[in-house]
Amino acid sequence: MCDHLESKYHIDAVVLHKDKIHIKDSGDANIDVSNDYNRMIFERDKPFYIKGTSITFAVPFEGDKELFYCKASTFTMNPPRASVENNELILTYNEVDPNPERIKADFEKRLSDIETYLRHVLNDISPFNNGLRAKAKLYIESRKSKILKDQGIVSALGYPIKMASSTPATYIAPAIRKKVVIQKPAATMAPFAPEPVLDMENYEAILKITSNMVLVMERSPHSFKDMKEEDLRQHFLVQLNGQFEGEASGETFNYQGKTDILIRHQGKNIFIAECMFWKGQESLLEKIDQLLGYTSWRDTKTAILIFNKNKDSSAVLAKIPEIVKTHKNFKRQLEYNCETGFRFVLSHNGDKNRELIVTISVFDVPQ
Known about the structure:
This protein is α+β, with helices and mostly antiparallel strands. The protein has 7 helices and 14 strands.
């Protein structure tokens, strides 16, 4: 759209092709000499024609011919005069007794004056042309913002996923997608579908489900003591699928590899989690690398679930913030009101300006 508007409203400066100047016409002409001072005063208000010669010069040009009729900010009280026909500047001389040297000198003088005026015009239109794209972008963004606001899409870009029960609808009436082409983009009938983004409310709901699993483990330790990582992960998936209509999956291919827990909405990833048994600092840093390798540029909310079989969970919890802060993608730690969890902001691989949230939760696994 910027390309279209810039092309449409760009003012093309006039360029004279002096190398293509030619005599367009010449011949006899009836010349009115009624105002000739050699005539009697009482005869000057009466038309009187005598035979003379007409010579017409044509100067081809390109650009916006309307500029010939514009007064620049720099001007004189006696501007040069000519006429415009199609893409030619026309200068005509009607002479009773034509003199070639005088006509040529006057023609070159008038042409030079016209070029001077065109330079003054160019000085005025250049700032407009140079700022046109920025103005177009500002207008488009303002217009787009208004449309999105009117349709309620801006407030719904959080795009929470649909809960299985008693979840209020959060979908927005679709907008019209603009098809960007070289010419003016044409509106299509395809509905505008924002990228689904997991809002914080549902993000917290998912994490709460995983945290509630700890209570189940504590109440039934014999059921979990022999479970491997895959089995524990499957237990989380059962609960998540019960809440989010079967869109949670395990070991699903995503971006550069497989991820342990993945929740998708309308074919788009909205939540990614990795599971691990606590084995120390190196294992956690490797798991963060693995998670970042699985997330695409659009994935913004993730989690790492740590199963701790050690008895000293407090020591493990004390180490996690310092370990995460040593990672090259670490940006900052967020406040997170959880006794056994932490929340961090990391950057995407290859794009430091694109942030994702990583929540790390530690679960005790009974011996």
